[in-house]
Amino acid sequence: KRVLAEIAADMRKSQPMRRLLQGDVGSGKTIVAMQAALVAIENGYQAVLMAPTEILATQHYLSARKLLGDAISPRTGRPYRVTLLTGSLDDAAKREARGRIYRGESELAIGTHALIEEKVDFDNLGLVIVDEQHRFGVQQRFRLMKKPGADGRPSEPDVLVMTATPIPRTLALTLYGDLETSVIDELPPGRT
Predict the structure, then answer these.
(1) Mean pLDDT of 141-163
(2) For residue 25, pLDDT beyond 90
(3) Which of 4, 114, 169, 190 is in the most buried spot, having the most CB atoms within 10 Å?
(4) What's the Cα-to-Cα distance from 123 to each of 9, 48, 143, 155, 175, rounded to whole Å?
């Protein structure tokens, strides 16, 4: 709740959020990221979650579908639409996924490096979530942040970077000097 409050406060600001979310495996980073995505979606924006591997991207996609399966958006009155885009999809599936993302028919796009290809454009990107940031280059993160919107201009979305790697505050400032830091330092009930 504390970390989500920090993220929501950043998302309310006029300048784009740049935040590192750090927590052990199983601490709840993905749930916090999904809640941040819902904040963006309910304010009329698209959200994207980029993971370093197809397995992890697929896990995030299945989790999002499970979490949002029966949920109805108060803003639109319809179910949330989630799209998976990975390199292993066949060409027709990739074209269809890119089309849904571009037309705004998908509020949440989840995938791998396939999301930063030049062919992928967003309708109204408001939040970029990068899982395991250290597995991506700075240029890759930058390309996703600068994806053009429907008007052709680069967007300036909020950015949430997640890592399970414990990084001391001084090292975090060196590696991610442009990012504020949030730490989930406790586990959900029942987790060891």
Answers:
(1) 74
(2) no
(3) 114
(4) 24, 12, 16, 10, 31
